[in-house]
Specification:
This protein has 2 domains: about 90 residues, PAS domain (Beta-Lactamase, 2-Layer Sandwich), CATH 3.30.450.20; about 240 residues, Heat Shock Protein 90, CATH 3.30.565.10. Helices cover about 45% and strands about 25% of the residues. The protein starts with a helix and ends with a helix. The protein binds adenosine-5'-triphosphate and magnesium ion. Magnesium ion binds next to helix 7.
Length: about 350
C-alpha cells in the first residue's frame, strides 16, 4: 500500500528531525541534565552539567557521590521525584544548586534523569527578604520608641516643663517623624520600582535648591555625630534638568549614608563638576571601606555590606532607589571605596543648558 508506506516514511523523517532537535537542546540547555543507569552511574551529561557541578569528568561516575561532598538537602520528595538543594563552589563564591531527580518510566530498570539548576540568586533574595522583615520591624521600632518616650514626658508635665526642654522634646518628635516618613517613602518606592510603575518628572531645576531641601532630612544625622558638611560647587553646575523631589531623595539617601557610615566628628564633602555634558555630584565620607567583592552588589535590593552590619540601622533600599531615580533621568551612579580613602558615591544629572541647546538646534 503506497499511501501507508508514505505515512511511515514521513513519520520516520519527523522522528529523525525531532531526535536531532533533542540532541541540540540537550547541548544548548542552560540547566544541567544527567542521565544515570539503574546503579546511579552517569551515562550521559550535557555541557551545562559539567559547568554547574564544576567537574571535568562525569560519565561513569556515581551521581550521588558528587552530592555527598556538598551535603544535599531534600526539600520535596513527591512520588517518583526528589527535589534537593546543595552548595557548590562558583567562580567567586559558593552557590546553591537545585537538583530534580526523576525516575524514567519504561526505560532501562530504574534509570534516572537529574536536572541541575543554579538557584543562587533566588535563594539569596529569599534570605535577604527574611532578614528584611526583621530589619523593617527594627527600623520602625527605634523612631516609634523615641516618639513614645518624648510624648510620655510632654504628656506628664507639658505645663511645668521649661521652654527649652519642651523645644528639645518637640525636636526629637520631629526627627523621629521625619525618619518614619523617609522609611515609608523608601519602602513605597522600592515597591513601585519592583512593579515597574516608578516615574520621574524632569524639569529645569537648581542643584543648590534641591540640596537645601534635602538637608531637612539629613541635618539631624550629621548633628548627632558632630559631623560637618563641606560643599564645593563647580562653575556652571547649578542648572540641571531633573525631578526635584526625586533628586532630593537621592541627596537625602546618599548624605544620610555618608553621615551614618562616616566616623564621628568627621567631614563629609559634596562636590559638583561638569563631566561630558552632565553635572556630576560626588559625596565623600571616611569610615570602614566596602569590601571590593561587595561593590557590585550594593545596588541590589536589601543588600547591606558586611562593613556595617549590626551597627548603623538600615534596610538596604537607599542605593537601589537612588540608582532607579538617576537612571530614569538619563544619568549614572557609582561607588568607589578603599580602606584608607573612605567611600565616594557619584551620580550625574543632565545639565539644563545642554538640553536647551539641543532643543534649539533640533
Ligand atoms: N557612604 C557609605 N560608606 C560606607 N558604606 C556605605 C556607604 N553607602 C552605602 N554603604 C554600604 O552599602 C549598603 C547599602 O546602602 P543603602 O543605602 O542601599 O542601604 P542602607 O543604608 O543599609 O539602608 P537604607 O538606605 O535602606 O536605610 C549599606 O548597608 C552600607 O553597607
Ligand atoms: Mg542608606
Amino acid at each position: 500500500m503506497p499511501s501507508e508506506r508514505r505515512l511511515k516514511t514521513g513519520r520516520r523523517t519527523t522522528d529523525a528531525i525531532a531526535n536531532v532537535a533533542f540532541e541540540d537542546a540537550f547541548v544548548a540547555l542552560t540547566d544541567g541534565i544527567l542521565i544515570c543507569d539503574g546503579h546511579g552511574r552517569i551515562l550521559s551529561a550535557n555541557p551545562a552539567a559539567f559547568r554547574l557541578l564544576g567537574e571535568d569528568q562525569l560519565p561513569g561516575r556515581l551521581f550521588e557521590e558528587l552530592l555527598l561532598v556538598s551535603g544535599a538537602i531534600t526539600v520535596q520528595d513527591p512520588q517518583g521525584q526528589s527535589i534537593r538543594r546543595a552548595w557548590f563552589p562558583r567562580e567567586d563564591r559558593m552557590g546553591v544548586l537545585e537538583i530534580v531527580s526523576t525516575q524514567l518510566a519504561g526505560a532501562a530498570p530504574r534509570a534516572t534523569i537529574h536536572t541541575v539548576r543554579d538557584v543562587t540568586a533566588s535563594a539569596e533574595l529569599l534570605r535577604l527578604k527574611e532578614e528584611f522583615l526583621l530589619d523593617v520591624a527594627h527600623e520602625l521600632r527605634t523612631p516609634i520608641a523615641a516618639m513614645t518616650a518624648s510624648l510620655d514626658l510632654v504628656h506628664q508635665d507639658a505645663i511645668s516643663m521649661p521652654r527649652q526642654e519642651l523645644r528639645a522634646m518637640v525636636g526629637t518628635l520631629r526627627r523621629s517623624a521625619l525618619r518614619l516618613e523617609h522609611l515609608v517613602e523608601n519602602l513605597l518606592d522600592a515597591g513601585s520600582i519592583e512593579a515597574g510603575t516608578f516615574e520621574v518628572r524632569a524639569m529645569p531645576t537648581s542643584v543648590k535648591g534641591i540640596l537645601e531641601d534635602s538637608l531637612v532630612f539629613v541635618r539631624s544625622v550629621f548633628e548627632s555625630k558632630g559631623q560637618r558638611l563641606v560643599t564645593h560647587f563647580g562653575r556652571g553646575t547649578d542648572r540641571v534638568v531633573c525631578d526635584p523631589r526625586r533628586t532630593g531623595q537621592v541627596f537625602a539617601n546618599l548624605l544620610t549614608n555618608a553621615g551614618k557610615y562616616g566616623t564621628e566628628r568627621s567631614e563629609i564633602t559634596l562636590r559638583t563638576e561638569i563631566v561630558a555634558g552632565f553635572v556630576r555630584v560626588t559625596i565623600h565620607n571616611d569610615g570602614p571601606a566596602i569590601p571590593p567583592d561587595e561593590l557590585n552588589r550594593l545596588f541590589q535590593r536589601f543588600f547591606r555590606s558586611r562593613n556595617v552590619r549590626g551597627e548603623a540601622g538600615g534596610l538596604g533600599l537607599g542605593l537601589t532607589i537612588c540608582r532607579a531615580i538617576v537612571r530614569a533621568q538619563g544619568g549614572e551612579i557609582g561607588v568607589d571605596s578603599a580602606p584608607d580613602r573612605g567611600t565616594s558615591v557619584h551620580f550625574t544629572l543632565p545639565k539644563a543648558r545642554e538640553l536647551a541647546q539641543e532643543a534649539g538646534s533640533a
